[in-house]
Structures are given as structure tokens and as C-alpha cells.
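Hi,

I'm pasting everything inline rather than attaching a file, because the server keeps stripping attachments. The sequence lines come first, and each chain or strand is labelled.
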Amino acid sequence: MNRRKFLGLGLAAVALVPATALHATDYRKEKPDTWKAEGTADAIKGLYGDITPIEEGVKIKAPKLAENGGAIPVFIKSDKPAKSVALFQDANPRSAVAVWTVPEGGIVDYGIKIKMRKSGKITAIVEGTDGKFYSKVLPIEVSIGGCGG
Amino acid sequence: MKVKAKLKGDVVKVKVLAKHQNVGPEEAKKKNIEPNFITSVIAKVGDKVVFEVSGSGFISKNPLFKFQFKGANKGDELEVTWTDLKGNTKTKKAKIK
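And the predicted assembly:
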């Protein structure tokens, strides 16, 4: 392959990328470790590295006692300008539930329904644009487990 | 998939209800089906991404996503796309009311 052709191919590849890369960040591809981790601490490490989150600035709204572990409504709210938000729990075989990419100037106010097969703690981590991490931990009691449990 | 987007003040509030089994590996084994779940959901207004989430098998069956964003007007079209583990995608458009 001559140089000109090679460069042309490179350009074509670059031009193709924005069309196929719909995601700003695909956390499943970029951080595979976090989705395999069994514990919350390992999952957080897999996603953000060694961090010490500050326990403030994040609110979680969820039922204290969830009757149906197959669909527990969880709301995460924060006033901090954020880059990403991650949700973990320690009741299922693996910890990571979802990771949101916050668009520039986006509002951190997310609602989701999650599965938990037994009672446990959910942890929300907010990655601030200031480079700091904020967290909140909330225990949830589950009477009938979801996740096939 | 159902998408509802409503403008309140300068904030658009959105509810997305995807129709999906959403089963992780353990649950799939019990139910004797193949594991498959929504791995990502993206919402856009025009070219601007307003919402993005990477998911797992621990999101409920027929998952519900709620979010808010600023910077859109009434009548703008919100485009929501999900992708699952097997590579299936579904897109739905909804006008902001």
C-alpha cells in the first residue's frame, strides 16, 4: 500500500467514527471491570480508580422497604455540576447497575427502576466537573427478591 | 417503547419506558432463556445528546428511565435510542409538549 492510499484510508476511518460512535462514553466498553466486579468497592475502583468520595451533595430517593425487588424505583439527585453518575448495590451477584454520562450543563436528576434480590445498600457516586467525587449510601429492605431470586 | 417529554418552565422532563425482558446471566439461567439487557440508552434533540446511560442486567424488566434537561423548546423532537447486549436497537421520536 502506498503512502497516499494509506493516508486516504486513515481519513476515511476518521470520517466514519462520528457516524458510528453515537456514545460520548460507552462505559460498558471502556470500563469492563466495573461491570464484572462483585463488590461495590471493586466496582467503584473499576470505574473511577482509587477515589475517596465526599459524603455530601447527593440525594437518593428510594423506598425504605421495597415490596417488589424486581422493580425498585430509585431517584438520584445532585446540585453539583457533574460529568457522570454511577449507581451500585451490594445485593446482586455483581454491583454495578447503571452509569449515566451527564451532558454539559446537564441536570443530575435521574430516575430508574432496579432489581435487588435481597436487602442491601445502594450507593450513588457523582463525578463532579471539579474532579471531586460525591456519594450517598442508602439501605433498602427487600421483601420479595427480584433478579430471579 | 413509550416516550413522554414535557416542558415545564425551561426544563424538559422526560419519561422513557422501554419494553425489554432485561435479564442478566443469573436470572436468564433460572428462566432458561438467553441473557439480554439494555446496555445503553441515548436521547438527543437534533444533534445534541441530552441523556446517556450505560445499563446492566440489574435494571428492572421493562425499564423506566426518568431524566430532565434544559435548552429545548416546545415542539422540538426528542429522539431516544436503546441498544441491547445482542445489538438490537430501537429508536422512538417524541415531540416535546
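The interface with chain B takes residues 22-28, 35, 70-73, 75, 89, 92-94, 96-101, 103, 105-107, 109-116, 146-148 of chain A (CB under 8 Å).

If the labels don't parse on your end, tell me and I'll reformat.
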